[in-house]
Amino acid sequence: MPLILALLTVLLLINGTITSVNAAEEPLPWRAGLAKVVITPQETMWMAGYAARNKPAEGVVHDLYAKALVLKDSNSTTFILVTLDLISVPHPIRNHIEAHVNEKYNLPASALMINCSHTHCGPEIRTTRWSFDGLPSERLSIAKKYVEDLQSNILKAIDNAMSSLQPSNVSYCRARCGFAMNRRTPSPTGYRNSPYPNGPVDHDVPVLKIQDMEGDLTGIVFGYACHNTTLSFYQFCGDYAGFAQQYLEEDFDGAIAMFVLGCGADQNPYPRGTLDLAKTHGRTLATAVKSALGTTSIPISDQLKHAYSKATLAYSTPPTKEELVSRSNSSNKYIATHGKRLLQQLETDGMLRTTYDAPVQVVQLGKNLTLIALPGETCVDYALRLKAELIKTPAQQGSVWVAGYSNDVFAYVPSRRVLLEGGYEAGGAMKYFTTVLQHGPFAPDVEERLIKKVHDLLGN
Ligand SMILES: [Zn+2]
Fold first, then answer.
1. Domain residues of the chain, as ranges?
2. pTM of the model
């Protein structure tokens, strides 16, 4: 049928009498375009993910990618999803890409979502003053050059996806996958990073399936809520998410597979520690995606809506100058460096940061699927809460996809529960974040502020 329509359209065009035949007789389907660009560093450089690393990368297990999906509905409303096999999406990179998308395609901020896999075996990403601080000049210039190249590679992926738009069917399916486990184990001295089978998890594997009009699979977008921390060695690698994408692209020739990280801030892949385990988890997740593809997928009607705004998150009461002096004398070098930088910030700006404006995005795909993109290293409670609040009937199961690590990854974003429990994700990790210098934990209303913004954007 589409072929006949296409022929009819061409014939009418030749006669110069085309009057939106498609719109009148059969609505245009989705148009979808996909592209990927290698972003593996071309020269030896330092890696991101573990502060204790003491030398640059020593090799490459497989390539890292920037991938782009462009979806256009029959009204030409457009959505661009970018996924990155990288530790983070710093706000300067998001701003750069957003400006390009606005200038070149006249699209608003809400049309662009950028998610990172948070692989701990990618290159370091340094974009701001505090992330440059104290770096030897050679290392700094390599890091800056990488970000420049990265930005042009992301734009190339978007441009290539734009120019490969073709009529497509978009549908949705899902499965489950079990290797993610909560990593916050209670102990007499607080919460420690260790597998905790009693803690909350989100084992959903949502899958967006994109097919051309012949029915061939062209895109597989899949999500999972788990840190990409099977590995901690000195080789560039996408960890389990890199392998899952690789295996799916090998198994579905011609398709591009894109991984979207969920709210996995307090989730680790277990067991972990070897390349074989990263491959095993990758294969397990790819198999879950295949099992989702084997179910009856739900067609998504070609209607697209998106909204994007910032939630103002407040920090807890800032430390006094005396506290900062004491921190800067700590024997723990990370606490000391953090304390010294905060003292400098206090001197330069006259105050420490009191709030952060964090982006929140909602994308409505047809009537069936709501994609929510949360910022920061988002704890699993957010996904569980939003699904519980937005899914009201059994028939709506699976209709809400919650991504974390999107658009701006500036800190851990704990739920109220995690914040009050304390530990690494609650604020202990704040000293390691340098894109935005932050003195300590968020205020206990951080969860309410983020969730309220989601509901506001959804018009609830
Ligand atoms: Zn993390």
1. 30-306+361-412, 319-353
2. 0.93
